[in-house]
What does this fold into?
Amino acid sequence: MAMKALDIYKHLPKTNCKKCGYPTCLAFAMKLATGKADVEACPDLDPGAKALLGGVTRPPVRAVTIGAGERSVTIGEEFVLFRHEKTFYHPPGIMVEVSDTWTEVEVRSVVDEVRETVVHRVGQDLVLNGVAVRNESGSADRFAETVRLAGGGSSLPLVLISDDPTAFEAALAIAGQYRPLIHAATADNWEPLAALAKQYGSPLVVRAGTPADLAAITAKCAEAGVADLLIDPAPGSLQGYITVATEIRRSAIERTEPALGYPIYLDAGALGETDAAVATGILKYAGIIVTPRFSRASREAALTLRQNIYTDPQHPIQVTPGVYPINNPERDAPVLLTVNFSLTYFTIVGYLEASRMPCHLLIVDTEGLSVLTSVAGGKLTETMVADALKKFGVADLVDHRILIIPGYAAPLSGKIEDATGWKVMVGPRDAADLPEYLEKEWKT
Ligand code: SF4
It folds into this structure.
């Protein structure tokens, strides 16, 4: 089981010497409890305490990086079973598969699609992560050639899927320097595959039908010197995947079976209903999801779901406070107030840009909370609005002194007028109604 900060603190020297980089032993204990510090940072820990704390404070699911360079993807390093307990840290890598029986045109078309898919949402660029090359030809040369066509791992991370060590040798001779993920070591072939993974420093997937068998093989691979492992429980159905993935994650989080403390690999295409399988993998613990080529709509749905699940609920995506010009506003343009919750900002901007109405959008820092929540929680206040008007020099941008506040902030309208000296107009609650509201109500 993970240890709480106070329990960890009991094992520290309690001298507050600061050698670990933290002001007190308690501060260090709090960092250890969340996996954000390493016990090695305290030079005065006795070996027994170091061994004990090291075992309980490292991430229960190991962090593994696939690929090299800008597009590499790091997965794992998770601490909780349920997102509402804390947060999920590393979104699963989504890899689109190609077969080495395909033509060059077919392979290149998927690779280009993966490379070029970008979904812009609430200020973030959401992308697919790589290509999975499946050895279906039975030929090592053909496999290696398809790996080369897929970029060899130099631009996109690769998954190499085969059961033939000779095919892996040929493919790794091309892609080995870019840390491709090798799939999969089984009870029968783990030794040569572990040797190849060790030689190239590549992460390795272990595949078996039960958690006990998976743990047995991962333990052998780890002993052979391969630290970066993934687990493929080879589920026969979507329901089967949910059951076994939950069991594996629970064992890892509760540290009842350290040999299962690795990210999970999901072959979504093998389960039929690909879209549902991809979504399930995102929701339930997959570190890598391999999927057949899917439609633009399905890609967008998967990337949006992944963004939502892997956004820290305690730290919503935020935009930088400030005053933003929309549609080239001049000095008679309205000034609209809103909060720095990204979804709110981008929704409003979308409607305003479409309306072509020039305006200034004043964003205040409510720590990423929505208007309704920040008003209810006291995060949006008249003082904050007055400070923001002053700080961002809004009075210098316009000739009027009128501020349009969101409908949900109506209870603050009088206080904002008193604190700022600006006349306040209460806008609509729904951003979709802003263009019509401005057209009817805005007169300087
Ligand atoms: S180095 Fe060790 S003893 Fe010193 S403050 Fe950090 S945890 Fe405490």
User: Anything to note?
Assistant: Residues 12-13, 15-20, 22, 25, 28, 42, 44 surround iron/sulfur cluster (CB under 6 Å). The chain is about 40% helix and 15% strand. Residues 238-253 form the longest helix (16 residues).
